[in-house]
């Protein structure tokens, strides 16, 4: 993944589109760093797998020099509209081929405090 940001020495950013095998390590990382409430949102739970099937290029890991996940970022493009964010309507409209460019992205990021 080519971005114009300085990364810590030996680290690299990789999207799941580039390396789908990172889905498991990313999931284990997220489970370890997210607060409990993150696991109980019905809209997120219903749409979670779509992040990986529909928007793999928006799922990004920061890998340390050993290739381990140091940080993870999960997001999905939001449609360009006046739709309120964070509800079922937004999640269902965030689809490929909708014909609109995303105005922004809904996101969740997490990192281990020791990294």
Give the N-terminus to C-terminus distance in angstroms.
20 Å
- Average pLDDT, to the nearest integer? 79
Indicate the low-confidence ranges by residue numbers.
97-104
Figure out the total of helices.
3
What is the global morphology? Answer: globular
Strand arrangement across the biggest beta sheet: 1-2-3-4
SSE topology string: EHHEEHE
Question: What's the number of extended β-strand segments?
Answer: 4
Fraction in beta strands: 15-25%
Helix content: 25-40%
What gyration radius follows from the Cα positions, in whole Å? 15 Å
Oligomer: single chain
Topology:
Elements lengths: L11 E4 L7 H11 L8 H13 L5 E4 L5 E10 L9 H6 L10 E8 L4
Antiparallel strand pairs: 1-2, 2-3, 3-4
Structure description:
With 115 residues, the protein is of the alpha+beta class. It has a domain at 12-76. The chain contains three helices and four strands; from the N terminus they run βααββαβ. It has helices at 23-33, 42-54, 88-93, and strands at residues 12-15, 60-63, 69-78, 104-111. It has a four-stranded antiparallel sheet with strand order 1-2-3-4. It is globular. Mean pLDDT is 79; it is low at 97-104.
